[in-house]
């Protein structure tokens, strides 16, 4: 009996460990078919900040995995740093030691990249920054691909300017992303600039919800105690946090969204939240395109064929509004 | 409390002296004092802090908010207390178990759809399956610790690492949105009941745990196994079974916390649910005056510890502390508490108290 149990748990353990391999598929030698075939593949190390952080990040991870698949001629090694900046730097150093052909980084933090990117440069490995920007000399990386976070923020504040036109007072509460992430920095900057430019906009409170629904709901509940019906605009820097804020408002008997309710601004525009935009609960949802995989693949192909990508490659982004969005628009989107 | 005694000591010396001594030596008193200090300072910074009203049919205010937000942590902390007491080690997989439980429940309710308001299975059945998932994780952890003699932290590191990936596989890698309003009964409100369900659930579980550990011999068994396993075995206790049981109870409680947590936001996100809660739970147990080396434990202490952690967070939000300073403030408060609760510091304070007392006595006499 005891032996049986031991065997059972060893099997269970193996299965549970196998459950994590999809994230790193293609990394181990066991999954590589033949040595000769492996040599023809382009080896790409992908340092993701946190592969399952939000719906956006999940879509982003999947897009890169799909675009840099074995069928497309890539051998992708995914390292998930779980939002640990120090681990991410050592992941990238690991890629350099493994002598990969390319490194993709979605940075946890903007700072602390000089040394490791210097090492990559010495090793002659091109570095592609994806979606998040960093504070380092432009010479240290090959190019950056992503949406413009500041521009996204401007799309949102443009809508707010229409909602709070003719001197109508805006009392804004601001749910920030994880501090230091470039999405947070850009979107916060856009809002703060707009508040500076509009005298009828007042920032009641500002706090980091760390991209999480649960934390955002908790903070919003606290603000409702503090400001109550005074709040008439929530600027949430991603969909998950907007969701948390809306739930806190509804539990307090306040109306979220619509023409008369508390104006809800959200970013990322994932499918579930576009549905909420259609339901009128989110007023303005600015897209942040997570499907960067094909773009990254194109950049690598360009470098492979001797070309030089631009320092900044951007992707198209749009915004969705509660009064103009339709089910057809949502259904036509790939994520 | 002790400082109070210093001032009033002259007039009512001997009686207060004994009370002060027993109070100062009780670890529980210390936890309560800390919680009170955290709460009471709000009278100055946030005058409305203790206001409670009924809004939209729900009891609302900062205090109900604390009780609500702390509920997940309280439930997890109870399980963590038992594990620490029985094994002298910690279970760091509690957050991952929360995600696994909720994912099972979400899968049962939503089927393969990522966002729907139709239940594919009965609600109660889904909850039970979720709890079963938590219990199985507990069995797995407990087996590794009690039968394979692994260090608890190393044993639970397996599920800590792999648990969220397992949960992710269960939900097909996506966040599940359960739109049926019934799903929110557990995490928000049962229609017509003015108190949040989370508060009711956590209170009921606290009461059950206190009763079980006080009225049955489980509490005593856990303590004796935690203090020293071998003699306990010699007097006929099955120490393996008791350790296993501690992990299973911890697994089930984590499961409940997972269901409560996902229900309160109406969705299951395997990457977010209960993230880093293991650290808060360990801290709560420590703040409650429990020995992290195992043995003697206090359910009440752990519960107070958990509410203290939430009270600190809510207080800082109410004080509008800037986001970039939030962690600094939290860390500062925790450091003060930990240092103040250390034995060396307490000894110093006790000696000082004695000195002041004896001086006063000689002056007064």
Domain count of chain B: the total is: 1
Intertermini distance of chain B: 25 Å
Number of domains of chain A: 2
Element string of chain A (H = helix, E = strand) = HHEHEHEHEEHEHEHEHEHEHEEH
Shape call of chain A: globular
Tell me about the largest β-sheet of chain B: 3 strands, mixed
Average pLDDT score of chain A: 88
Question: What structural class results from the helix and strand content of chain B?
Answer: mainly alpha
Low-confidence stretches of chain A: 19-37
Q: What is the gyration radius of chain A calculated from CA atoms?
A: 22 Å
How much of the sequence of chain B is in beta strands? Answer: under 5%
- What is CATH's topology name of chain B? ABC transporter involved in vitamin B12 uptake, BtuC
By DSSP (H or I, 4+ residues per run), the number of helices of chain A equals 12
Strand order of the largest sheet of chain B: 3-4-5
The CATH homologous superfamily name of the largest domain in chain A equals Response regulator
Topology:
The complex is a heterodimer of chains A (335) and B (365).
Chain A: H1 2-18, H2 35-40, E1 42-48, H3 55-67, E2 74-80, H4 85-97, E3 102-105, H5 114-122, E4 127-130, E5 143-146, H6 149-163, E6 170-176, H7 182-197, E7 201-208, H8 213-227, E8 233-236, H9 239-251, E9 263-268, H10 271-278, E10 284-287, H11 293-304, E11 312-314, E12 319-321, H12 327-331
Parallel strand pairs in A: 1-2, 1-3, 3-4, 4-5, 5-11, 6-7, 6-8, 8-9, 9-10
Antiparallel strand pairs in A: 10-12
Helix pairs in contact in A: 3-11, 4-5, 6-7, 8-9
Chain B: H1 2-8, H2 13-25, H3 27-40, H4 42-45, E1 53-55, E2 58-60, H5 62-87, H6 94-110, E3 115-116, H7 123-146, H8 152-170, E4 176-178, H9 197-215, H10 218-227, H11 229-234, H12 239-265, E5 267-268, H13 277-287, H14 299-318, H15 323-341, H16 343-364
Parallel strand pairs in B: 3-4
Antiparallel strand pairs in B: 1-2, 4-5
Helix pairs in contact in B: 2-16, 3-14, 5-9, 5-10, 5-12, 5-13, 5-14, 6-7, 6-8, 6-12, 7-8, 7-12, 10-12, 13-14
